[in-house]
Amino acid sequence: MRELDQKEEVIKSVQEIAEQLLFENHPARLTIEAYRAAMQTQWSWILQLCQCVEQHLRENTAYFEFFSDAKEALDYLKNLRDAVHRKYNCDRSSSIHKLEDLIQESMEEKEQLLQYKSTVAGLVGRSKTIVQLKPRNPENSLKTSIPVKAICDYRQIEITIYKDDECVLASNSHRAKWKVISPSGNEAMVPSVCFTIPPPNKEAIDTANRIEQQYQNVLALWHESHINLKSVVSWHYLTTEIETVRASNVASIKTLLPGEHQQVLSNLQSRFDDFLEDSQESKIFSVADIAQLEREVNVCKQYYQELLKSAEREEHEESVYNLYISEVRNIRLRLENCEDRLIRQIRTPLERDDLPESVFRISEQEKLKKELDRLKDDLETITDKCNDFFSQAAGSPSVPTLRSELNLVIQNMNQVYSMSSIYIEKLKTVNLVLKNTQGAEALVKQYETKLCEEDPLTADKSNIENLMGTLKVGTWVLIWYWYSY
Question: Domain SH3 spans what residues (predicted)?
Fold first, then answer.
């Protein structure tokens, strides 16, 4: 264009000279006017051609830049698709930590992918403004006429075309000149530089559509991969919860704080709900897989509910056990106290002829016997309760201990009770012996006194017979005392 500017100065100079000559009425006035007009026409034509070339350069630049950018976009999207498929491919054996890292990376990659949408939209928009260049090449012969647009004025005897006229390209068999039909219907060979083949460029449109489709495919692949990642992560969390529930037992449940039992079931249901949501579009889990997991979750819930009932039952059994074992041990302590008192009395010898002590001991033992009777009643009551507990909680681990201690107390009770009964009977026997002995001694003393009051020696037969009768009566009384003992 700088050269044209320089030439324009020369043209202006020549025109000024021509005008000066015409002003001076030069003898070759007509020739000068003719040359001046021809030069002006040719110069205007050259300027129009230059403008046409500039427009063609702009359009061609846009054309090649578009297809270059389009190729770059297609390559980028293809590589991105391969990378997404390779990087985010996963299955159930994938580590949960790796999957969580990949989910984070995929979210960052999605941001980049969404930002690239503006590039794709720009290419789609540009594709609608790209002119057609291939029909300008004679090698691409036209199968049918196509519309062209004039980008400058063109006047010839056989045809006149104005800038922006919509014409029809009838033949492109020559590179420099085309057979064109003007809006008025005139047909002529016109320099091809005067025309541009306007959009739409089908190839550009198709390329842009292919880019947009490729972009949507990558976005869909990313979405599918992201769903698969999330579904496998949710599956890992769910299976962990399932294994936790399966590993639970009554002992572990008892260690939980109030409210934590329900939290376990709530966590299991929450994990399953998350899995259902995350696996809706997952390609990794089929409908059968999801149904199987649902069955496993329901089985786990039922199992855990049974554990809760067992734990509650065991806690109740332990409570009953603690109550009953406490009562049994309390009876045992009371029984041992009675036994100690009984043994102390048994081991303490009774003073000979100590009738008051004998009476006192009988009284004490009768009190002890009444205490043992009450204790025996209490033992029978707790025994009935324990027997009911044994029948209702046969599998309880506390049953053997309670049964053993109860049997021991019952056995001890029988021994102590029997010992007490025997001891009371012996005390009563001793008491009776003491009473009879003392009675006999008193009788003997009575007869001794009576004998002493008699004359030392009497010859009276009747007195002797009376004395012998009295002694016989005393003898029979002593015999009665003896047999009473």
Answer: 143-200
Task: Give me 143's structure tokens.
Answer: 């199968």
Q: Pick one of 2.40.128.270, 3.30.200.20, 3.40.50.1950, 1.20.58.60 as the CATH number of 318-455+474-483.
A: 1.20.58.60
Question: What SS3 state is found at 285?
Answer: coil
Is this prediction's pTM over 0.70? no
The 8 Å CB, 24+ separation contacts for 231-234 are: 231/275, 231/278, 231/279, 231/282, 231/284, 231/285, 232/90, 232/91, 232/92, 232/94, 232/99, 232/282, 232/284, 233/96, 233/99, 233/100, 233/103, 233/278, 234/271, 234/274, 234/275, 234/277, 234/278, 234/279
CATH number listed for the domain at residues 132-198 = 2.30.30.40
- Residues counted in the chain: 485
Which percentage of the chain shows pLDDT scores above 90? 50
- Domain definitions of the chain by residue range: 132-198, 318-455+474-483
The model's pLDDT over 393-411, given as tens digits with 9 standing for 90+, comes to 877 878 899 889 999 999 9
C-alpha angle 412-416-417 in degrees, rounded to nearest 5: 115
322: part of which helix (H) or strand (E)? helix 287-347
Distance of alpha carbon 63 from alpha carbon 72, whole angstroms: 14
**Helical pair 29-87 and 2-23, crossing angle rounded to 10 deg:** 160
Structure tokens at 161: 């075309």
C-alpha 262/C-alpha 117 separation (Å) is 47
- The CA distance from 54 to 401, in Å, is 108
pLDDT, one tens digit per residue, over 320-360 is 989 989 999 999 999 999 999 888 888 877 666 566 777 78
